[in-house]
Amino acid sequence: MKPSASIEAPEQYFERMFANQSDFQSKRLVIGGIAYALYYLETMIDPSQVQDYILRPLLLRPQDAVHDVVSILDYAETEQLEEASQAVMNGKVVLHRGKESRLYLLGVDLKKERSINIPINERVLRGSNEAFIESLDTNLNLMRKLINSTEFVIKQYTLGRLSQTKIAVMYMKSIAKPEIVEELDKRLNSIDIDYVEAPGFIDELIQEKKSSLFPQMLITERPDRARAYLMEGKVVIAATGSPDIIILPVSFWSFFQSPEDYQISWMLGSLLRFLRICCFFITIALPAFYVSVSSFNPELLPSAFVHTLQSSLKYITLPPVIEALSMILLLEILREATVRLASPVAQTIGVVGGIVIGTVVVQANLVSTTMVIVAALTGLASFIIPSYEMSSAVRLLSYPAILLSSFFGLFGLVCFLMLIIIHLCRMHTMGLPYYKPPFGLSDVKDTLFRLPLWTLRKRPTGTAAGDQTRMRNPRSWKR
């Protein structure tokens, strides 16, 4: 719908459109014999900017064209009332000048955002201490500062019929595969939903394997980590209102990498990464292994250890499977309680609750001391995994492993681990294999281990279609 040259018609449209909005304001002014009308939401604009950059310049130069007078960078014109009403909802002032059919959209929105802080969930001892915040513009600014190149592309989308959430897709034009960018564009444009809660909604709506426990997209709050994956040809998605961004496509091994691996020596980084992968299997298999050896296969352990295990189980009333399930469930309850409570109280609950409950259940002969050690080691192993999504998935997988071990012993545990590997091999993300066994020399360089940087000369072939050379002569000083 196009506005009329008169002031009254657009005014009636806006007052009808925002009739139920108590913060909507419609102001009429006459400056130099010319009628003006301003439409805005007073809770969304900065009054000082309206005064300094709109009203005062108009008072000084009322006869000049609006685009020559108003000194605002976020400036646009439209002849569509629907577009103007959406601009009002976005925090802009709509200016209508009498005897003109066009409307001026002036960005004077009030910006209230928290300052850039340190990462909360991905803290490292060495490396950057900047984290994303809820403002999309600020997050894009952080990425622009880290990647000062014209090859860095940002494409913006609007998702949600009612929420009108702004989404930004970032990638390196000379590195990323065009097929991945096109596929992501198709999936984002196909989303038809009232509102978007990022990153969870986006993750679930565009992922391929809907029923898998394993995360198929990496979520991070660190700009340096996002930059590292962009340089490998991956795509990054950021959204308004979320301090977390999505990285895709990623492989299974990406969830065990940490930015700190590249800030320390390659030998120590390789050791820590291999330790995380070992903890993945410890979290899944250790409680189930305890159930199988205590109920079915004690001959797998040395005789001295078997005698110790049997003596600890001598007066225990519960069977091993109930022991394991109850202790793992108790560990989950303690973890969830410490997450939901305030930090000082959470630390007290975690320490006191763990010590008191662990001591009481052992003294009451409900759980053996060996099971308490197994549960503690399982919990610690799950916390070593850098990705919260992968850590949560691994903890859930320990329950079916315990149940299968209680029915079939070690055979059930082995079959369950084989099913997990088969499931991983069948998964794809954005058309690329999710799990590729790192048996080749090119794969093992930055998966199971982190070899020296001067050996990582090529980018991953799966995501980098353009410039695959990461470094050409990194140690040219050495003769």
Automatic annotation (TrEMBL):
GO terms for biological process: spore germination. Keywords: Membrane, Transmembrane, Transmembrane helix. Residues 460-479 are annotated as: Disordered. It holds the Pfam family GerA. The chain crosses the membrane at residues 274-293, 313-334, 341-360, 366-385, 397-424. It comes from the Bacteria. InterPro entries: Spore_Ger, UPF0353/GerABKA_families. One of its GO terms (cellular component) is membrane. Belongs to the GerABKA family. This is Spore germination protein. It comes from Paenibacillus sacheonensis. The lineage of its organism: Bacteria, Bacillati, Bacillota, Bacilli, Bacillales.
